[in-house]
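agent> Task received from the user: take the single chain below, predict its 3D structure, and emit structure tokens. No templates, no multimer pairing.
agent> Plan: (1) validate residues, (2) run structure prediction, (3) serialize to tokens, (4) report one or two observations.
agent> Step 1 OK, no nonstandard residues flagged.
tool_call: predict_structure(input=
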Amino acid sequence: MKRAIGVAIVAVIAVISLRVVLAGRGALGDGDDWMLRGKPAEAIRSYEAAARWYVPFAPHVDAAYAKLRGLAGDTPTGLLAWRAIRSAARATRTLWQPHAADLADADAAIARLAARDPAAGEGAGTSIEAREAWHGARLSEDLRANRGAAALAGLGIAALLAGAFLLVRRSRPALVPGVVIALGTVCWLVGLYNA
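)
tool_result: status=success, residues=195
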């Protein structure tokens, strides 16, 4: 029974990973097609989609970032590519940040380009250096949930499921599953509150 569950879990992970890789490669191919048609903005959107189809060690992700970096620069299209790099890197963050160097480079480039426009950012300052620092500070703000709190909430959900499993199996007295469910609920709520 345990072996069958293990095989089922591995099969589900393999199917999901295959789906992610196929979708990512398809988006990468779409971006190449858009580039051949001379439409870099559409290509950037496709390359960003490919980068967002993230699974560790998938070759299409690094290829998508390389294509986006090739389009990035100090032009409006280049700014669009930098924003796509930033968006993809932010979207794929979990307990760690994949492509952290790409994210840092994109934040710096976007701040530098935004600083050139005096109308971009009310109260940013009058000098280019002040505006660049202001934009850089805004871009570096992390508005996502606290990682520790998110991990605690995930642990709480896992404990809730484990407690429910124990309760259904009734292999132990009802007190043990009840305590596990209660602790899971507390961890989940504390994690959500602090996230």
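agent> Step 4: summary for the user.
Residues 2-140 form one domain.
agent> Done.
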